[in-house]
Amino acid sequence: MAKGGIAILYKSTLQFSINEIHDTNSERIVGLEIKTPSKGSLFIFGAYLPSDESVDNYRTELNILDALYTHYSNYGNVIIAGDLNASCLEKDKLCSNKVQICGANKIC
User: Which branch of life, at top level (predicted)?
Assistant: First the structure.
């Protein structure tokens, strides 16, 4: 499954039910649900967050991820992976703003 340069790959021979999540509301986020008879649902979201200088663009995508996490965590475990384009290095002001946004959204 892929969209906008992001992909989640899985083996077609897996013995699980796998469903694509279409309502991510972003070209930068893909999602899927893995259902197992014994463990329930696992939701995986792959993200490629903006790397431009706009903190507003970054915040918009992060808010979408937060909403997806909040919604789907009611139904199972959630994994968010990908290139979040954030750094914990203090030397980069934009990156430190992104880390603060991640912390405020409880993603880091």
Answer: Eukaryota
Identity of residue 23: D
Of residues 8 and 48, the one with the higher pLDDT is 48
Complete domains list, the chain, with CATH: 2-104 (3.60.10.10)
Distance (Å, whole) CA 87 – CA 11 = 32
Separation in Å, CA 61 to CA 37, 67, 87, 94:
32, 10, 16, 16
Model pTM score? 0.76
Q: In sequence order, what are the beta bridge partners of 54?
A: none
Q: Closest by alpha carbon to 86, among 94, 76, 74? A: 94
